[in-house]
Structures are given as C-alpha cells and as structure tokens.
Design goal:
This protein is mostly helical. Helix content is about 65%, strand content about 10%. It has six helices and three strands. Strands 1-3-2 form a three-stranded antiparallel β-sheet.
C-alpha cells in the first residue's frame, strides 16, 4: 500500500526521469550481456560497423560507429589481439591502415547479436509487440529531433 505521506507524481513522473532510469537499466542489461560474451559495447559497434560497411580506415570506422578516435585505437588493438579484426596497410595510402573483420570476428559478432537480442527482450518484456514498435518509433522521433537541433547549434 502507498504511504499517504509520500508525495504523488512530481519528479518520478517526469519523462526525463523515466528515460534516464530506463536507460540505466538498458545499459546494465546490455553491458552484462556483452560481458558474458567477453566483450564491450565498443567491440560490438566496431564489429557491426565492419560487417555492415566492409573494411575501413580507423577514422572512417570512428565516424560510422560514433566512437571517438581516442577510444578507437584501444578498441581496435583489443580486437586485433583477439584476432577478431585485422589491420593492413591501405594500398591507396600506406600511411594509414585498413581494418577488416575476420572469420572469428564474424562469429563473435553473431554471439554479441544474440546477447543483444536477449537483452532487448528482457528490457521490453512488459510491452506487447505493438507497444514495442510504438515505443521504438517514439524514441527514434525524439532522438532524430534532438540530433537535428544539436546539429543546428553545433
């Protein structure tokens, strides 16, 4: 039973509060899922970007994945040490490397995609299929709006 002395609504019903708390749960779920596959979010983003776009320079990978250059080098090093990606000199410009996905990297990407799907399912468990689609559409609309606005001011 609710305590009548507790305030009703207020900050607990603000969309920003609800989004932040849900994002915290989503982050924990995804981080735990990737950790179970001995990976981090940056690993997934690099492997998925290479799978989608093919071999690329570290700079192009950074732009496509949204990973800052300072984090990209360490991430590529970690993935290369595990033979999930390989670096080779760019034939068009020997001063830079081209990063490509290995067969082991594709297998790891599939494992991470499975973990991610399971975590999405866990996060969205209380929602019906239609509610999930609507929720995702609304979040996309909000993000697109604010991304455009930040582009106008940045």
């Amino acid at each position: 039973m609710d305590d009548p002395s507790e305030p009703r609504g207020g900050w607990r019903t603000l969309p920003s509060w609800l989004l932040t708390q849900t994002a915290n749960h989503a982050h924990r779920l995804v981080t735990d899922g990737f950790s179970a596959a001995d990976a981090r979010g940056y690993h997934y983003r690099v492997l998925a970007t290479l799978d989608e776009f093919g071999p690329a320079s570290q700079a192009a990978l950074g732009r496509r994945s949204g990973i800052h250059v300072s984090e990209m080098v360490a991430t590529i090093n970690e993935l290369a040490e595990r033979e999930l990606v390989e670096r080779a000199p760019d034939p068009a410009d020997r001063r830079r490397n081209v990063v490509s996905l290995t067969t082991a990297g594709k297998r790891q990407l599939r494992r991470l995609e499975k973990q991610l799907a399971e975590r999405q399912e866990e996060l969205l468990a209380p929602l019906s299929s239609d509610e999930r689609k609507r929720f995702t559409d609304l979040l996309s609309k909000l993000l697109d709006h604010h991304d455009r606005r930040s582009g106008e001011t940045g």
